[in-house]
Amino acid sequence: MATLLTDTLKARYAALQAERERSWTTAQLEANARQRAILIDRFDLAAVAQPGTILPPLSFVEVEGETLTLDALTADGPALFLFFRFAGCPACNIALPYYAEHLVPALKQRGIRLVALSPQPSDRLRDIKLRHALPFAVATDADNVLARTLGISFVPDDRPTPPPAGWIGEVTGTDSWELPQPTVLLVGAGRRVEWLQVSPDWLDRPEAEEILDQIALRLP
User: Fold this and answer.
1) How far is CA 78 from CA 31, 191, 206, 214, in A?
2) Does 1 fall in a domain?
3) Which residue has the higher pLDDT, 220 or 148?
4) How many angstroms separate the first and last alpha carbons of the chain?
5) Quick one: average pLDDT of 182-209?
6) Is residue 2 part of a domain?
7) Which CATH number belongs to the domain containing residue 132 in this structure?
8) Which one of 8, 32, 92, 146 is CB 3.0 to 4.6 Å from 84, fit for a cystine?
9) Residue 161 has pLDDT above 90, yes or no
10) Could you read off the pLDDT of 43-92 as tens digits, one per residue?
11) What is d(CA 80, CA 107) in angstroms, rounded to the nearest whole number?
12) Distance (Å, whole) CA 101 – CA 89
């Protein structure tokens, strides 16, 4: 059955924004929009990793304790990575189950492994995998090492000192303001970057069809 146009990621984010406009204060809406606008304005495509970049031999701890390595993940074919912010992020809780529904089946047909990465420790990430029964690995990019290597991490402009209760480093368990911008990364043999797409606006991420089209362009 064809995917309904109303079941796009864009439509799901529009519903989230509509709910926020009903329930958030004007100040909250303006602060959220301001930070997203800043990240869009600052984004420089030339500053992020380009196709052909060879990544270091990094490893990531999956929520069940398994250690995943870039070498092993790409030993039998390419792997696709989805960078997300943290387990409690509302936008990420929309994106990951959407990709599970609309991206995973096609990736399995092509033998492409899918891994979702966040700087949050694996014990805290386990919640998002269980909540949505995600059929792919969810793992920790500790200290944003891969995100920094790719040039996709950021820190928000509004960083009170000392940090208030409930600040992002406390929520994530990283003791840091730093987060990855939502990113789709395709890595091939030899840890080679085949394609990378960054979403500086975390409410504007690529549809599954767009990702599959990009993969088709780059892989035989």
Assistant:
1) 39, 9, 19, 13
2) no
3) 148
4) 26
5) 96
6) no
7) 3.40.30.10
8) 92
9) no
10) 999 999 999 999 999 999 999 999 999 999 999 999 999 999 999 999 99
11) 9
12) 19
